[in-house]
UniProtKB/TrEMBL annotation:
Catalysed transformations (reactions): Hydrolyzes the link between N-acetylmuramoyl residues and L-amino acid residues in certain cell-wall glycopeptides
One GO MF term attached to the UniProt entry: N-acetylmuramoyl-L-alanine amidase activity
Main enzyme class: hydrolase
Protein name: N-acetylmuramoyl-L-alanine amidase
One Pfam family this sequence matches: Amidase_3
UniProt cross-references to CDD domains, sorted A to Z: MurNAc-LAA (cd02696)
Gene Ontology CC terms, in alphabetical order: outer membrane-bounded periplasmic space
Encoding gene, per UniProt annotation: amiA
Positions of the MurNAc-LAA domain: 270-425
Classification lineage: Bacteria, Pseudomonadati, Campylobacterota, Epsilonproteobacteria, Campylobacterales
Originating organism: Halarcobacter bivalviorum
Length: 432
């Protein structure tokens, strides 16, 4: 513009100065400046003298670009240090997303009673860049604190005047969910209108889900027998009754294969589940060990139906299948098991993992030494007829002196039932 003004005003001195600027700048920007050089040479010839073009002092573009790149590298390096991508609260859950796969070793749970109230504390292995500015809130919970406790530990603390019921589970290896159960009950001071609105917004995995629970054995079939004539059939029935109550409160439609101490044939136990079009079938049992191992074997196990036959699974299956009267040769049974529906086996496997994990979490609040017998697969005939995901739970060894005593304790029975209910919740949250 300055050059054009000089040309229009016939101001040769300014015209030359601006030509110098255009040529110098054009060279730095790699522009075509031949027409300006030609124009300036014309003035040189007219004046018959060499005109020296002084470079214009401008900011070096490369230096600016270098500074930007350095800043970006620093930001990327800083972000790389943080292993947690995001943390947010949604409905009655706190959702933590990680940058790489995680496992149950990444989380440690503890409970405390402080002057300010009851606290559920989750110490999570990882670092989160925005731990301090992030605020978490769940209706019905007094406060949720999030902070980077150490450079490698993120702490999430739930606090309330009442002892909260919280659980955790993993989704797709990179997501951890902390869930607060029954929070809608805490807001008793709010109006009915607000409470109804909160209930409508909150996702409840049990809504429209049908669960059939089978209390193993019964009647003339007492199942395994422990010290002081502790019967398996009594323990499993008590736990299923507690489980029925917990699930109904969470919105599930629940049916029991037996409502009293009566004998039911193994092959008939899944008939109810199929008639009611159940979403899952859960058979509850207590394990037993040979006389030589009654003081050694203990712990909780969860099984799902599969043609796989490990020695341990075969032993447990033989005990649970003993009351089955179906007449089938070994080769026929093997062929039948091999024909099982694979997607149903996969779903049953997922259900068993969630139930096992949550049973351990719940029972270890009472007894820290509860043994994890693991999730296993085996040929259990009580599960064969189920047309839906199904599992068989061994609550513990009724033959073990210490564990059988626990299995007859109502507090421990409730903890087992609550763990199973939380596992079912977890399964439906991930597989709606």
């Amino acid at each position: 513009m300055e050059y054009l003004k000089a040309v229009l005003n016939n101001d040769k001195a300014k015209e030359i100065d601006n030509l110098k600027i255009l040529i110098s700048t054009g060279k730095k920007l790699n522009k075509n400046i031949s027409k300006y050089e030609s124009e300036l040479n014309k003035y040189n010839k007219e004046n018959k003298k060499h005109i020296k073009i002084e470079p214009i002092k401008i900011e070096e573009p490369k230096k600016i670009e270098k500074a930007k790149i350095s800043k970006k590298i620093k930001e990327d390096t800083d972000n790389y240090k943080y292993t947690i991508k995001s943390v947010e609260s949604r409905n009655n859950m706190v959702i933590i997303d990680f940058k790489s796969p995680v496992s149950k070793n990444f989380i440690k749970f503890s409970e405390e009673k402080a002057k300010s109230g009851f606290q559920d504390i989750y110490d999570i292995k990882g670092s989160f860049k925005d731990a301090h500015p992030t605020k978490l809130k769940i209706d019905g919970v007094k406060q949720i604190v999030i902070k980077q406790e150490t450079p490698t530990t993120l702490r999430i603390l739930f606090e309330d005047n009442k002892n909260l019921k919280t659980i955790y589970f993993f989704v797709n290896n990179k997501r951890l969910i902390l869930k607060v159960l029954d929070v809608e009950k805490e807001n008793k001071t709010t109006t009915n209108k607000i409470v109804k609105k909160a209930k409508k917004v909150q996702y409840r995995p049990g809504l429209n889900k049908v669960v059939v629970i089978d209390a193993g054995h019964g009647g003339k079939d007492v199942g395994a027998v422990g010290p002081n004539k502790r019967y398996e059939k009594i323990v499993v029935f008590e736990v299923t009754k507690y489980l029925e109550s917990y699930l109904k409160k969470r919105g599930y439609k629940v049916y029991l294969t037996r409502n009293k101490d009566r004998f039911i044939k193994v092959r008939n136990r899944t008939i109810l589940a199929n008639e009611k079009k159940a979403d899952i079938f859960v058979s509850v049992h207590a394990n037993a060990a040979h006389k030589s191992k009654v003081n050694k074997l203990n712990g909780i196990e969860t099984f799902f139906l599969s043609p796989a036959r490990s020695e341990r699974a075969k032993r447990v299956a033989a005990k649970e299948n003993s009351s089955d009267v179906r007449n089938m040769s070994g080769s026929t049974k093997k062929a039948f098991l091999e024909s099982l529906n694979r997607p149903r086996i996969t779903a049953s496997h997922k259900l068993s993992i969630d139930i096992q994990r949550n049973m351990l979490f719940s029972t270890r609040k009472i007894h820290k030494d509860v043994i994890d017998g693991g999730v296993r697969e085996g040929p259990f005939w009580v599960l064969v007829g189920a047309q839906m995901p199904s599992v068989l739970i061994e609550l513990g060894y009724i033959t073990h002196p210490k564990e059988s005593k626990r299995l007859y304790n109502s507090k421990y029975q409730k903890a087992l039932a609550e763990g199973i209910a939380n596992g079912i919740d977890s399964y439906f949250l991930k597989n709606p």
